[in-house]
Amino acid sequence: MQVQEGELDEFIGGYSAVDTGVRLYLKNGRSYPVNAGIDENAAGQLEKEEERNGIIAPHISSATGVNVFDVFVRVTFRDGIIGYLVKEYEVNQIVDTFTVSFYQDAGFSYVVDKNGNVLIRPPHPGSNKTVQNLFDMLPDTKNNPAHLEQFTEALQTGKTGWATFIYQEEETVFCFVPLKLQTDWYLVSIIPAAVVNAQTQQILLRTLILIGGIILGIALLVLLYFHYVNRTNRRLRNQVDYTRHLYNAVPEGIALMTVEEPYRFLQLNEEGLRLMGYPEAPQMTPLQGKSFRI
Predict the structure, then answer these.
(1) Bridge-partner residues for 118, per DSSP?
(2) Is the backbone peptide bond immediately before 251 cis, with ω within 30 degrees of 0?
(3) CA-atom Rg of the chain in angstroms
(4) How far is the C-alpha of 269 from the C-alpha of 14, rounded, in Å?
(5) Distance between CA atoms of residues 133 and 263, nearest Å
(6) Which residues contact 106 (CB under 8 A, 6 or more apart)?
(7) Which residues fall within 8 angstroms of residue 117, CB to CB, at 6 or more apart?
(8) What is the average pLDDT value for the chain, to the nearest integer?
(9) 160: number of Cβ within 10 Å
(10) What is the pLDDT of residues 171-190, one digit of tens each?
(11) What residues have CB less than 8 Å from 64, skipping those under 6 apart?
């Protein structure tokens, strides 16, 4: 058993040297690497843990005094001893990953649990650096108690949504979405309503400009199409008029007729009409329905 413990300590110690913050906590009270400090807060949480894997909420490590949270997975050894392999993360090193700034740095985010307790707070200058609970930021005297109650219920029941409250003397939009990850954590984003409204107006204005540009483009295409059609028709009419002029300028009769029986005259020039006994016509005239047998 001593040899096994030595091998286990060497294995976890070597892995921890490669990836810092790795610990193994056994439910018999031992932990590895042996020379690493024990985080009593994490160990206490794991003693009561029944899940196979999960996350321990941010807390002050008793070993380092740093604000950390832990990801764990349960392991069971052949002799039945249960342990938890834990990876520890310092909150200040990953805070930018969870609490991003947006809306040109006007908005920021908190990570809270379902009861509103602040787990990870952003470094943004507009955030509250001392308050421990999200609901303490929202005074009852300036916000509708019914709306606050609905907000509380939404967090406790795992819903996603948004609400508007007075925060730091300004109307502010609170957007909330559960992080899942087998936790009751929420990402709550806070954006001044004035910033949202200003960007919404910009989006609407750009949308209207885009729609106007599309309509103008379609109108120009339609105008170009009609211009092209009119120009083509004018050219065709000019060609027809020129052809008629040439036909009528010839002193002989010219006829356009079918090649199969019954032979039909389709068109005659003015001389042809005169020879056929028709009244004079100023141009080539179609003779619809007129058939002649030769």
Answers:
(1) 112
(2) no
(3) 43
(4) 108
(5) 102
(6) 126, 191, 192, 195
(7) 132, 133, 134
(8) 83
(9) 10
(10) 999 999 998 877 889 999 99
(11) 37, 39
Distances, alpha carbon 294 to alpha carbons 166, 255, 262, in Å: 101, 14, 9
Beta bridge partners of 166: 171
Q: 223 CB contacts (<8 Å, ≥6 apart)?
A: none
Q: With contact defined as beta carbons under 8 Å apart, do 195 and 107 qualify?
A: yes
What is the token pair recorded at 13? 């110690």
Q: Which two tokens stand for residue 128?
A: 């509250």
User: What pLDDT does residue 98 have?
Assistant: 65
For residue 26, count CB atoms less than 10 angstroms from its CB and return exposed for 0-12, middle for 13-18, buried for 19 or more.
Answer: middle
175 with 162: CB under 8 angstroms? Answer: yes
Cβ neighbours, 10 Å, residue 224:
10
- Per the model's pLDDT, the better-predicted residue between 163 and 266 turns out to be 163
**Per-residue 3-state assignment (H helix, E strand, C coil) for the chain:** CHHHHHHHHHHHHHHHHHCCCEEEEECCCCEECCCCCCCHHHHHHHHCCCCCEEEEEEEECCCCCCEEEEEEEEEECCCCCEEEEEEEEEHHHHHHHHCCCECCCCEEEEEECCCCEEEECCCCCCCCCCCCEHHHHCCCCCCCHHHHHHHHHHHHCCCCEEEEEEECCEEEEEEEEECCCCCCCEEEEEEEHHHHHHHHHHHHHHHHHHHHHHHHHHHHHHHHHHHHHHHHHHHHHHHHHHHHHHHHHCCCCCEEECCCCCCEEEEECHHHHHHCCCCCCCCCEECCCCECCC
Task: Say if pTM beats, i.e. exceeds, 0.85.
Answer: no
**What amino acid occupies position 186?**
Y
